[in-house]
């Protein structure tokens, strides 16, 4: 191989790696694609191999490229565990019939990443025994629990006072 060719190969490798590092994290994209498989109406731009930070209803931290916000309202899509999203700050799961999902999973409890600042679980018919305590969410600023059957948490919305 000539020196020129070597240099060209080297340059291509550097360019491709630079381009890849601009993308979202593989495990987060995989989790989103897993969610997509459950959507009633799939967002058309949630496509494998593309940068999930650019997808509809997804926002990332511009520096770390980790998913920071997810809007999954009325998608009927959920994971039993959102912990794969290590820097998730805002999660909207309203209108998702999560109660039905929890039942189908043998009543496992839902829990959320401790990085969450905003969590919307309104309109899900959730009961006390399907959620973990919210007191682990130390960064929580807003919690919307309207229209669930969470006794003791009745009609909480807006600012969450621990
Ligand atoms: C992005 O992540 C970095 C590192 O965790 C953090 O310092 C920064 O505040 C984040 N940016 C935004 C806009 O949240
Ligand atoms: C990230 O960058 C894009 C484009 O530069 C900008 O529109 C967006 O507001 C930024 N997001 C955050 C959280 O800073
Ligand atoms: C539901 O959980 C809340 C918060 O932990 C608690 O205050 C309430 O007593 C519980 N209600 C029932 C019926 O267990
Ligand atoms: C909670 O909301 C429901 C429906 O809007 C209402 O019937 C109920 O009285 C409310 N409970 C409390 C404690 O405010």
What series of H and E elements makes up the topology?
HHEEEHEE
Number of strands: 5
- Structural class call reads alpha/beta
CATH architecture: Alpha-Beta Horseshoe
CATH topology: Leucine-rich repeat, LRR (right-handed beta-alpha superhelix)
Top CATH class: Alpha Beta
Name the CATH superfamily assignment: Ribonuclease Inhibitor
The unique ligands bound to this protein are: 2-acetamido-2-deoxy-beta-D-glucopyranose
Number of domains: 1
Continuous helix count: 3
Distance between the termini: 66 Å
**What percent of the residues sit in helical stretches (DSSP H or I)?**
10-25%
Beta-strand level of the residues, as a percent range? 5-15%
Compute the CA-based radius of gyration: 19 Å
Given as residue ranges, the uncertain stretches (5+ residues, pLDDT < 50) are none
Inertia-based shape: elongated
**Largest beta sheet: strand ordering:** 1-2-3-4-5
Largest sheet: 5 strands, mixed
What's the average pLDDT? 83
């Amino acid at each position: 191989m000539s020196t020129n060719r070597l240099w060209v190969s080297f340059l291509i490798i550097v360019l491709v790696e630079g381009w890849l590092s601009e993308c979202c994290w593989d495990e987060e994209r995989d989790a989103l694609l897993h969610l997509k498989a459950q959507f009633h109406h799939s967002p058309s731009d949630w496509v494998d191999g593309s940068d999930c930070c650019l997808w509809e209803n997804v926002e990332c931290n511009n520096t770390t490229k980790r998913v920071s916000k997810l809007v999954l309202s009325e998608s009927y899509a959920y994971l039993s565990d959102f912990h794969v999203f290590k820097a998730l700050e805002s999660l909207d799961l309203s209108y998702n019939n999560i109660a039905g999902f929890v039942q189908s999973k043998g009543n496992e409890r839902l829990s959320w990443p401790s990085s969450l600042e905003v969590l919307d679980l309104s309109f899900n018919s959730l009961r006390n025994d399907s959620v973990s305590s919210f007191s682990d969410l130390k960064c929580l600023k807003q919690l919307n629990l309207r229209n669930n059957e969470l006794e003791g948490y009745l009609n909480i919305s807006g600012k969450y006072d621990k």
